Amino acid sequence: EVQLVESGGGLVQPGGSLRLSCAASGFTLFNNYMTWVRQAPGKGLEWVSLIESGGGTTTYADSVKGRFTISRDDAKNTVYLQMNSLRPEDTAVYYCNVGGPFGNWGQGTQVSVSS
Asked: Per residue in 51-61, is it b (16+ CB within 10 Å) or e — as a string?
């Protein structure tokens, strides 16, 4: 059974940092591309970042480019999202996903950026 479990969210001041984790089970990260998606209060889903299978090429939404870094630890079968220079507009529930919109999703982790 495929499972994704996110963790690492919390409340942080503007300019602060958080690292989100997505622990995967039931499949091998190396063979799959993984995405982080977020949903701000009252808004739709926003794609944040992707790490490709194999070599792990990464891409980012313009809104987070230069501030967020996606990475993968194959030994731990875990994907990370390092978030620096956080802004209030980054406040959202963050989800990791495998297999696209009709694939598997985690339960989400809340990130709140506020002074």
From this structure: beeeebeeebe
- Cβ 80 vs Cβ 48: under 8 Å: no
Between CA 94 and CA 6 the distance in angstroms is 8
Rounded Cα distance between 74 and 86, Å, is 27
CB 17 within 8 A of CB 86: yes
What does the pLDDT average to over 4-16?
97
**Alpha carbon distance 75, 16 (integer Å):** 28
Binned at pLDDT 50, 70 and 90, residue 36 comes out as very high
What burial class does residue 92 get, using C-beta atoms within 10 Å of its C-beta: 0-12 exposed, 13-18 middle, 19+ buried? buried
Q: Is the pLDDT of residue 101 over 90?
A: no
- Three-class SS of residue 50? strand
In terms of Cβ atoms closer than 10 Å to its own Cβ (0-12, 13-18, 19+), residue 86 is buried
